[in-house]
Amino acid sequence: MRLINKIILIFLGVSFIVFLIGGLVTYQIIGNEIKKEEQWFLMERLRSTEKYINRKQPNKPIIRDKVMIIPISEPIKTDNIIFSDTIVYHSTLERPELHNKLEVGKEIEGRYYKITLYDIIIEQDDIIDGIVESLFKTYLILLALVLLMGWILSKRLLIPFENTLKTIKNLDIKASEPVVLPKTGTKEFQRLNNFIENMSNKIRGDYQSLKEFSENASHEIQTPLSVAKGKLEILQDTCLDENQHQLVQEAQRSISNLSKLGNMLTLLAKIDNREFDNMEKINASVLVEDIVDDYKELIHLKGLKLEVKIEEDVLIKSNATLFEILVNNLLKNSIKHNLTSKGYVSIHLNNDYLEVKNSGKALHTDPEKLFGRFKKENHQTNSLGLGLSIIKKICEVNNMKVEYTCFEENHLLRVYFK
Amino acid sequence: MKVLVVEDEIELSKNIENYLQKEDFQVSCAYDFFSATDKIASFEYDLVVIDLMLPDGYGMDLLYALRANQKNTGTLILSAKNSLDDKVRGLDAGADDYLAKPFHLIELSSRLKAIYRTRKLQGNKNISVGEIIIHTDQHEVYFQDKIIDLTKKEYEMLLFFATNSKRVLTKQNIAEHLWGDYIDQADSFDFVYQHIKNLRKKIQKVSQLDVLETVYGVGYKLKSL
Q1: What is the ipTM of this complex?
Q2: What pTM value is reported for the model?
Q3: CB contact burial B93-105 (16+ within 10 A = b; e otherwise)
Q4: Any B CB within 8 A of A263 CB
C-alpha cells in the first residue's frame, strides 16, 4: 500500500472518531442550549401570565392548552419555580408529546395562585438526526477533499522521492562520476538525498580504491617476481646437482604461475575499468583463422585432430583486443583440457556464433559453475581457474552470450554474437 | 657490448648486471631517470635496457631522448604492465624490443644479442656453431655448403642455443622463448622434447653431428664442437 494511502486511511479513521465525539459534544451543547432557551421562554410566559392575572384577577381556575392557573385560598409557598418534563396531549399534533413544565406558586394582589405552564420540547431524535446528517455531509466533503489532496500531493510532493528511487535503482558503483540528486525543499527528502549521496560516494570510493589496489598489486607483484626469477637463474648457473636443479625449476614454475595470475587479474580489472570500451566492426573470420593458425602447431604436437569450419566474412561488433583474447582463451582451453589420446578440437564460426568443441574428461560439476573465478574442475592441474571467467567477462562487455555444455567426453563452448 | 641498465629496483638491476657480465657484456646501471639521462648524454652505449616505471620519470621519455640525439643505440623496454598498449607505444617510440616482467635473464640476454646483431653488426651477422653456420638475415642454416632445412620453431631454437652456447637451457626457458604466453606449462615440456628430437635428427642427417647434449634433470646444452 502506498504511503499516501496509508496516511489518508489513518487520517480518515482518526477524523471519524473525532466526528463521533464531536457529534456527542454538539448534541450535549445544543440540548443544553435549547433547554435553557425553553426555560427562558417559559419564564417570559410566566411574567406575561402574572400580568394577565394582575389585570383579570380570576377566581376560577383557568385551564388552557398550555396554561393552568388555579387560584388557591390557602397561602402557599411562593416563587418556588420547578421545571420538569412531562407528557401532555398536544392539541394540534393530536398526540401526546414531551413537554417542558413550569410549576410555581404566586401571590398576586393578596391572592395565591398555582401557575403551571407547558411548552413543547424539541425532540432529541430531531437533534440527533440533524447532527448526524450535518456531520455526515461534512465528513463526505472531508473525504472527497482528502482523497483529492492526497492524489495531488502524492504526485507533487513525492516527486523528489521518486527521483531518488530512480537514481538508486540506476546506481552504478563502477561509474566515475559522483551521484548527484536534485535539490528538494522537503527536509526529510533532503536528508535522505544527502545520506544516499554520501553513502554512494563512499561505496564508489571504496570500490575504486579496492580496484586500484588489486590492479596495482598485480602490477607491483611483477617486479619482485622478476627479482626472484633472476636470482634463481643466477643460482642455476652455479654448480647444482640434479636434485637442486629440479627444485630451482619448480620454484621457477611457481613464479611463472604467480605472474600469470597477476596478469589475468589485471586483465579482469581492466575489463571492469572499461578500458576496452571502444567497439568496432571486425572481421571475425580473418581473426579466428589467424589465431587458429597460431595454435595449429600445438594442436598437432598434442596429437589432436583439428577440424575448422569458418564461414567467410563474418562481421561482428566487438572490441578487437578483447575478441582476440577471447578466441585465444577458448583455443588454449580446448587444447589444455583435452584428452591425451584420440582427442579432437573442432572450431566453427558463422554469423550467429563461434563454437569450440573439444574432447576432454567428463565433468563432475555443473559446467556453468566453472565460469566463476578460481573455479576449476580438477584441483590437481596447474590451471588457474580464471580462463573461463575471463571469457565470460569479455562476453558480458561485448554483449555476447556464452554457453558451456558438456556431454560425456565432449565439451562445447558457444559464444553467441546476437 | 656496452649496456646501460635503467631499472629502479636495485635487486633486479643487480641480477641483470651480474648475469650480463657473465655473458661478456660491459654493464653499467642507472637507478633513476635523472642519472640515466646523464649517462646517456655522457657515454656511448650499444644497448640500453629501460624500465618504463621510474621513480622520477617515465622511461618512454628516455627513448625519445635517445632518438632525438640520433644515437644508434639498441633499446629494450622492461615493463611490469603486460599490456599491449605499453608494448605498442614502446615500439612506436623506437624501442627495438619489449619484455614483460617477470622475465628469464637468459631471454633478456638473447634478445639483447639479437638487437645487437641487427643494429650493430653491419657485415657479418652469421653465427657459427662449429661448422654449422646460422645466417640470421635469411633465417637459414648451413653445414659446410649444405642447407639444413628447419621449421621456423626449430630455427629459433637453434639460434637460441647458439646465442647461449655456454649455458644449459631448461625446458621452461625454451618453451617460453618459443611460445611465450601461448602455451600451458604442463604441455610445453613434451613439445620442447619433440622439437629437440626433430632438430637433432635434421642436423644429424646433414652433418652426421649431434650438436645437442642432454643434461639430465636440467635441460639441454650446445655441445662444444
Answers
A1: 0.77
A2: 0.63
A3: bebbbbbbbbbbb
A4: yes
